[in-house]
Amino acid sequence: MSFAALGLKASLVRIAADRGFETPTPIQEAAIPAILQGHDVLGLAQTGSGKTAAFALPVLHHLLNERQGPSRRLRVLVLVPTRELAMQVGEVMRDLAHDLPGGIKTVVAFGGVSINPQMMSLRGGADIVVATPGRLLDLIDHNALSLTSVGALVLDEADRLLDMGFADELSQILEMLPAQRQNLFFSATFPEDVQELAHTLLQDPVLIEVPDAPEHAPDITQRAIEVDADKRAQLLKTLIKQDQWSRVLVFAATKYGTELVAHKLHRAGIHSAAFHGDLSQGARKQVLDAFKAGELQVVVATDVAARGIHIADLPVVVNFDLPRAPADYIHRIGRTGRAGASGLAVSFVTPQAESHFRLIENRQGQRVPREQIPGFEPTDTAPVDEQGEPTGPKGLDPNGGIKGKRKSKKDKLREAAARDAAHDAANRGGRP
Ligand code: AMP
Predict the structure, then answer these.
(1) I want to staple 220 with a disulfide (CB 3.0 to 4.6 A). Which of 24, 99, 337, 380 is the partner?
(2) Does residue 432 lie within any of the structural domains?
(3) Is ligand 1 within 6 A of the CB of residue 95?
């Protein structure tokens, strides 16, 4: 099958070829014709499947067909969970649209940075907006854009949108969209809450589940090593040296954790650096460049920061701390085994985190056999229930805990807002 056979305009086929895309990936082969025909699509696809181009190419095809007058109207809205994905998808859109006639304009918007430049870039309109849900609502509040002309909605990584607590924002946004539109829904995993969202959103969708074709399924070996929390750094040093891991991305739960682990490795003579959001842009770039150049053997990162790391050749990923959200596990291990290379994903499972790791296994529908390394056998006893089953972390979890156990920043903000409102109401009540 070729891109030309999928029904795309010749200009888009050429652009794909220029990018080195010769044959469509399975999700592209199934999604592109369905989207071109105007169907809603439910795509269950992992990172690395080529899903961005699977929706970007046909969406651009539609835009070319409906060239507008001089004023631009927002036609395509892509919602994504994170700033990194927003930048990544925006980049793909701009890159693919670059040589197309008419000048298709893509604006990328995400929170955590000043809203003003994003408002400026929306002046004069945009054809495509790629945004995180919270910032999109802020921009709408500021009258920087309106959703009334949107013809296609893309939810990318829908499972993570929900994991990151965007359900309320999503429903607000959906209310503002025209009823008549095409919906393209992509998710790596398909738990109940994601199914519900897909059900409310999609009309007679074409279901595309990417088959685990050997040529496309990443070849990732998963290992789960049981170890006490306080022995993990020592175990990591031992494994890196013993197994001669050349380039390792280690995930830790906190910024402090990344610093601590990197420091311990460094003291053991392993070139390592921490990578997290508190580092300046310049410092981050330095670390990345050194990692790519092979001058750094290990980078210890938080989940959020790691999304900015794009390295094709990454043979080993280590979960020093397990991710809080099970969906993040799939994203983390998907960092290795790219471009046909085989990869190794190692998780350190402390007795306290055993039950959380089972949740992760359930989510990915795959068990990972537990191993112990001589000299590092766990001695901590995990809390157990009446049946002798581990009960999992209870607040003080060295692995960062289960999502939902602690108040999120958003919960805290909401509580503060509620307190303020109550305070204001009390004050108003007190006035004559
Ligand atoms: P994605 O799953 O969208 O993040 O894409 C994963 C990677 O595959 C990206 O680096 C794309 O540039 C690349 N890619 C997408 N489609 C193709 C294709 N048909 N042939 C070769 N590479 C592709």
Answers:
(1) 337
(2) no
(3) no
Regarding the beta carbon of 52 and ligand 1, being less than 6 Å apart is answered yes
Question: What ranges make up the beta strands (E) of 322-393?
Answer: 342-349, 370-371
Backbone torsions φ then ψ of 263, nearest 5 degrees: -65, -45
If one counts the domains in the chain, the total is: 2
Sequence-separated (6 or more) residues with CB below 8 Å from residue 98: 15
Domain shared by 201 and 86, yes or no: yes
Q: Model confidence over 69-122: pLDDT tens digits?
A: 666 899 999 999 999 899 999 999 999 998 888 789 999 999 989 999 999 999
pLDDT tens-digit profile of 328-372?
Answer: 888 888 888 766 667 899 999 999 999 999 988 887 777 899 999
Domain boundary among 197, 212, 227: 212
Query: Is ligand 1 within 6 A of the CB of residue 28?
Result: yes
The single-letter code of the amino acid at 327 is A
How remote is the CA of residue 194 from the centroid of ligand 1, in Å? 24
Residue type, 25: T
Is 12 a domain residue?
A: yes
* Domain boundaries, position 161: 4-212
Whether the Cβ atoms of residue 300 and residue 262 lie closer than 8 Å to each other: yes
CA of 312 to the centre of ligand 1 (A): 12
- Residue 409 sits in a domain whose CATH number is 3.40.50.300
Mutate to test the pocket of ligand 1, among 15, 29, 46, 52 (most ligand atoms within 8 A of CB): 52
**Ligand 1 in reach of 25 Cβ (< 6 A):** yes
Are residues 106 and 234 both part of a single domain?
Answer: no
Q: Which of 194, 212, 230 is the last residue of a domain?
A: 212
For the CA of 25, the closest atom of ligand 1 is 19
Contact 13, 4 (CB under 8 A): yes
